[in-house]
Specification:
This protein is an all-beta fold and about 130 residues long. The chain contains no helices and 11 strands.
Length: about 130
Amino acid sequence: QVQLAESGGGLVQAGGSLRLSCAASERASRLNTMGWFRQAPGKEREFVAAVSWRRDHTYYADSVKGRFTTSADNTRNTGNAVYLQMNNLKPEDTAVYYCAASNLAVVATTASSYAYWGQGTQVTVSS
């Protein structure tokens, strides 16, 4: 069973930055894609970004392009790690952010394609 643990959330003013981290208990040999999703109160969970380990490809939702950057580290002996650097944050970015892992061969932007999920970390952006 793959376990994911996020960290790095918090409260920040609009225009500020945060960096989220997600540590996985498995190496890249089992996981093809690491993704980030977020869910605001009263809204559905939405795709934010994803990175493919083997091809080093990254994908972003239009709402975060140019502001968010995801990167991966598959050199750790203790398991994969993925990061989400969030710059120029806006109040509408406020949500619980989740990292997720998939062993599918293709990168997906739908939550149902990811089998493993972290517990989530709160990001709050004040205006």
